Amino acid sequence: MCLEVAPVQARECEKDSSKFVGLCMKVDNCATVCRGEGFTSARCSTFRRRCVCIKEC
């Protein structure tokens, strides 16, 4: 019997950047700040335009 196992994606945790200043308009700037805070990626929130840092939980 052969069972196929689908890859499991790690959960991601998000946190507002504590060092980003101003409105988040370009994710590149946000990602640079977040990497400096120890996160792996980032996004700009759509409504509040805040820099949100992302890493595996």
Which helices and strands, and how do they pair?
Layout: E1 12-16, H1 27-36, E2 41-44, E3 51-56
Antiparallel strand pairs: 1-3, 2-3
InterPro entries: Defensin_plant (IPR008176), Knottins (IPR003614), Scorpion_toxin-like_sf (IPR036574)
Domain Knottins-like: 12-57
GO biological process, one term: defense response
Quick structural gist:
This protein is an alpha+beta fold and 57 residues long.
Count of helical regions: 1
Largest sheet: spatial strand order: 1-3-2
How big a fraction of the residues is strand? 25-35%
User: The CATH topology is what?
Assistant: Defensin A-like
The major pleated sheet works out as:
3 strands, antiparallel
Shape: elongated
Query: CATH H-level name... which superfamily?
Result: Knottin, scorpion toxin-like
Give, in order, the helices and strands: EHEE
Mean pLDDT across the residues is: 92
C-alpha-based Rg, rounded: 15 Å
Q: Mind telling me the CATH class?
A: Alpha Beta
N-end to C-end Cα span: 34 Å
Q: Helicity range of the residues?
A: 10-25%
Q: Give the tally of β-strands.
A: 3
Unreliable stretches covering 5 or more consecutive residues: none
Tally the structural domains: 1
Domain Knottins-like: 12-57
Pfam families: Gamma-thionin
Protein name: Knottins-like domain-containing protein
GO biological process, one term: defense response
